[in-house]
Amino acid sequence: MRMRRKKHLDERLEACDDVIISMYSEDRNFKTFDDKKNYLDTTEIFGNDNPLYLEIGCGKGSFATELALKNPGINILAVEKISNVIVEAAERARETGVKNLKFLLGPAEYLPRFIENKSISRIYLNFSCPYPKKRYASHRLTHSGFLEIYKKLMADGAEIHQKTDNAHFFEFSIEQFSQSGFKLKNVTFDLHGSGFEGNILTEYERRFLSEGCKIYRLVAYL
């Protein structure tokens, strides 16, 4: 079922053009897209050279906004490919007045064109779509194809932080990380029963917790 287009979407997106950067272009071929670099000047965008974090699949932006507010010494790029969703995230961020958060509109496959290699200090994958059918495995954000993209973007010492409520997806992710040369730490099959401190809840996480679901988490690094 397709999401119904939000009322006045174009006007709302235009009103948020100071915090939304579009990654779309006429060339939708991911293979050739990577050859046409258009790196973002994040120093100009944020006005500083603070460490750069990336959240892929930011949804309505509650995690990215709270992360930015709690960590003014880092810059955050939050990626979302659905206009209907990113507009709410951008509006939320603008209401708070947060300055160290911008949004990238487009799919993760486009990131190599806009993000310079070895520039990202941390990547967040929060409750990514698990695409449960095997034939869609390559769409999962922890599939080896995406992990190769992240490898190029990650600075020395960078980490990937993943959270999900889906046990099968989590097991798949562990396998893919390991096969792609990543090491794992802080792996937990029950985040909220582990005593972990400093967790920032996402919209999905709040819902899953209310339904009694366990939350799985890991940190991957090279």
Structure report:
There is one protein chain. The protein is of the alpha/beta class and 222 residues long. It has a single domain (23-75, 107-221), classed as Vaccinia Virus protein VP39 (Rossmann fold, 3-Layer(aba) Sandwich), CATH 3.40.50.150. It is 33% helix and 22% strand. The chain has nine helices and eight strands. The protein has helices spanning 9-15, 30-33, 42-46, 62-70, 83-96, 111-114, 144-153, 167-179, 203-210, and strands at residues 20-22, 52-56, 75-80, 101-105, 120-126, 154-164, 183-188, 216-221. Strands 1-4-3-2-5-6-8-7 form an eight-stranded mixed beta sheet, sandwiched between helices. The radius of gyration is 17 Å and the shape is globular. The termini are far apart.
Give a topology summary:
Blueprint: H1 9-15, E1 20-22, H2 30-33, H3 42-46, E2 52-56, H4 62-70, E3 75-80, H5 83-96, E4 101-105, H6 111-114, E5 120-126, H7 144-153, E6 154-164, H8 167-179, E7 183-188, H9 203-210, E8 216-221
Parallel strand pairs: 1-4, 2-3, 2-5, 3-4, 5-6
Antiparallel strand pairs: 6-8, 7-8
Output the radius of gyration. Answer: 17 Å
- Level-2 CATH architecture: 3-Layer(aba) Sandwich
**Largest beta sheet: what is the strand line-up?**
1-4-3-2-5-6-8-7
Please give the domain count: 1
Number of helices: 9
Main pleated sheet:
8 strands, mixed
> What is the CATH T-level topology?
Rossmann fold
